[in-house]
What we know:
The protein is built from 22 helices and 13 strands.
Amino acid sequence: MLDHIVRQRGKIARYRQIAQVLVRHGFGYLVSQVGLGYLVPFHWGLFGHPRRAIPYTQAEHLRLAFQELGATFIKLGQILSTRSDLLPPQFIAELSKLQDAVPPHPGSVIMAQITQDLGKPTSEIFETFDKEPLGSASIGQVHAARLFTGEEVVIKVQRPGIERLVDEDIAILYDVARLASGRTVWGQIYDLVGIVEEFSETLHAELDYVREEQNAERIRRNFAGDAALIVPRVYKEYTTKHVLTMERLRGIKISDLEALDAAGIDRHRLAETLTRIILKMVLENGFFHADPHPGNYLIQNDGSIGLLDYGIVGHLDVDTRDNLVLLFASILERDTERVIDRLVDIGVVGTTFQLERLQRDVGHLISSYYGRPLGELDITQILQEFLDTARRHRLQIPSKLTLLGKTLSMYQAIARQLDPKFNLAEMLGPYVQRLALERYWPPRLASRLVPVLTDLSRLAITLPRRLDRLSIQAERGNFSMNIRIPDAEHYLSDLDRMVNRLILGIITAGFIVGLSFLLVSYQQPQLAPLIGWLFGFGFLLASAIGFWLMLIIIRGGHH
């Protein structure tokens, strides 16, 4: 009981801190709109923010607020920076700047965490252990060490207490999402609770280092025999949920162009290799590294790429990959109708889905690229414009696709930094054509038809029995059908408000007419009896009409 009270007090204190930070950075209206205004004394006027010559933009304020609120909100901002379907470009650009770096914990604290998780002191596991971290982030920090067998390793250690803080913040985000869903227009348009659920899954996956080890091993298997990609070895015996021990890779950072040139690395070829790797991950394997930060790539002397940090990954099922291949092919062929069909097949849906308007806007977008050679097409720009169009039409895009779009954009940015003349479309076109031919080649298509024929056979056997049951239920009067019309509740609510206003207007009109009769009777007393009778009749008629309309609405609501 005492623990529950302490947790509740801690949650309320965190609520207050979040509300105060949002208010200090100019988002007081947001706090009030979701019903949390009572947590902050707005009328005191005590909340300011750092001053500078140029005013802060709203997007900058949001980034600064997330930065101040710590690990959970930094990660939330980084994930929101992939959601161009939800936020305008200026917010996407600012949230992309969020730096996941904080002062490190002392080495003694980290060594105690390692001892607790691995069951042995660091002196019995590592021959040497560097107390000064190689890097420090909001979730964990990385230290260098050497095993007694001589291998150099890096140990990623989760910050003590971070899991409890994340759980607390996630619970608060759930509360705010539920409040916003019922109180705000944008909360009704977008599935905010669903977005928080996806964020929670992503963040908890990043908190589990065993899962990160599994991600690394899966990518290693997918690229077995491909010397272009190096995945560091994970030492499972020294890995737990909170501690990850991996082989230490050395090399040149992919962003250090001078060092690459000095080592004789062909940067154009390196850009092609990097692009081939991500296209294989996305379109062939359906499992891709989704944190393409330049610091996660170490280039070896032979031009191979060492890949680090497997905490954030993306998953694509077979159907989604097939539809992506067809979508890219349709974009490159400037086929508007096929683009729309592929978007629907992938799962792009909306609350106000209007196919004709969407076809018109996508058609205008594609026509702007019509006739231009592949070398002049910017896939990143095209994807961004598609996401902008989706946001205007209030379409809900699956999170896996927004993560993919952000990942491809970052990969292209790295490739263009290596070679400014590099263009993703020039590689994507032939690659997509080859995959389309392979996947729809008759022998392979025949193998994919076997499960379909199996399902059809089962349906042919069970369908007569199901139809017989359905006809019996219909004869007995037990047959019922549920029909759901999208946005019906929203439209009925609008209609209810309109009718209520109509009733009020009729009754008010009755009062006004009656008042005018009274004024006439006051001016001409000889007409008072007649006027009184007309006033009473008019008021009763208006009230009867209003009452009749209310009965119709009530009966309609029951049916």
